[in-house]
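Bumping with the actual sequence this time:
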Amino acid sequence: MELKRISGQQGETLFEFYDPNNWPSQWGKMPEMMCQLIKILESIDHEPVWVFTSHAELLFTHKDDYKDWQVLVQIIEIDKKQHYKITAAQENPWHHLTGFADNPNTAKELIISGLSVSAIGKNRNIFLDSN
């Protein structure tokens, strides 16, 4: 799967963005986990997908635009262990489908599933819409 950075973020690669040396230790293993996930996603056979970052989040979208997202990936802590939180945008009455993974392979499967079922074209707000 080719992860194409949106136009406004093509100055650095995803690996450069998530370089562990650029993140303070308070983020834990988040940068390494995102790099592992990106490597796995780039190794699978799938159509290209537009991606962008917002703070620590990785977002997948259907076009070269940050105003709408289909799948959002966050690293969260549960019971003192970090996990992938995968959120797929949905229509009403369920605004989102959310899954959790403790490894990049499971996270990859949730992302692929999320891309196949996510709602498109809702101009979702990253911060207000991802809870």
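The tokens above came from a reply further down the thread. Strands lie at 3-5, 49-54, 57-61, 71-78, 81-89, 96-101.
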